[in-house]
Amino acid sequence: MTTTLLRPVRQLAAATLIGPRRQAVAPHAEPVTDAAAPRASIALEDVSKVYPNGRRALADVDLVVPDGDFVFIVGRSGAGKSTLIRLLIRDELATSGRVLVAGRDLRRLSRREIPRLRRQVGIVFQDFKLLPHKTVRDNVAFALEVTGTPGRQIRPAVERVLALVGLTGAADQYPNQLSGGEQQRTAIARALVHEPRVVIADEPTGNLDPLISWEIIQLLLRINELGTTVLMATHNADVVTALRRRVVALEDGRVVRDEIGGYHREY
Ligand SMILES: Nc1ncnc2c1ncn2[C@@H]1O[C@H](COP(=O)(O)OP(=O)(O)OP(=O)(O)O)[C@@H](O)[C@H]1O
Ligand SMILES: [Mg+2]
Fold it and tell me: Which terminus of the chain, N or C, has fewer Cβ atoms within 10 Å?
């Protein structure tokens, strides 16, 4: 996707999902020259990961995900998809090579800078990871509270993302009162509430039936249309095949394919 194509999307994002903070900075942060190349949300340069037990989970991975991209990560069980995601959220450090997210080299990030990274990257897991004793609204609000967002900004930000994911009517429910799809929508709202540059999802439809999986995918596509980069690991061959987006395939920790569309049956 070119920068020219992205720009109206970003403007739309500034006007809707992406709230006042980004609206205020966008004209200065985004140069208006169309010659500018899209920036990379994610870049891995010759990345390998060997776990302490000696298991090599990633080997010589090169991957660039420009701002605004939508990328599927596929590969059979054990191929390294979750390891790649753990590196991107700095849950683990690469054994060698460089991992850059939102322009930051994760190895060089000081402890103080980690909260800032976490605000730029929204994360969604297969098992939702909601706090059971908090309502939908409070689960989403908590993500802002822990990063020290001023109280008066929290309520409007939470209401905005709940509307985006279609959960305004369920705001006072607890997770055990929700369907799986609604729980995942809550997790997506929580991932979005910081207005991140990139949303990373590790098998977000893994616990959902096919129809609800499609609803979640449609939501992630809409978020992407609004300007947020999306990287999603999945085993869902139907979705990947139907959508004809960029597909990065891992095999034994190596990138064996990186192209638009398709899905290898054996994954
Ligand atoms: N903490 C760990 N310590 C040692 N080995 C690990 C660890 N986590 C993962 N591995 C190994 O690294 C390899 C890649 O695992 P990973 O979880 O990244 O695969 P995956 O593609 O996400 O698989 P799945 O589709 O089953 O989720 C596997 O061989 C796994 O056993
Ligand atoms: Mg995994």
Answer: N
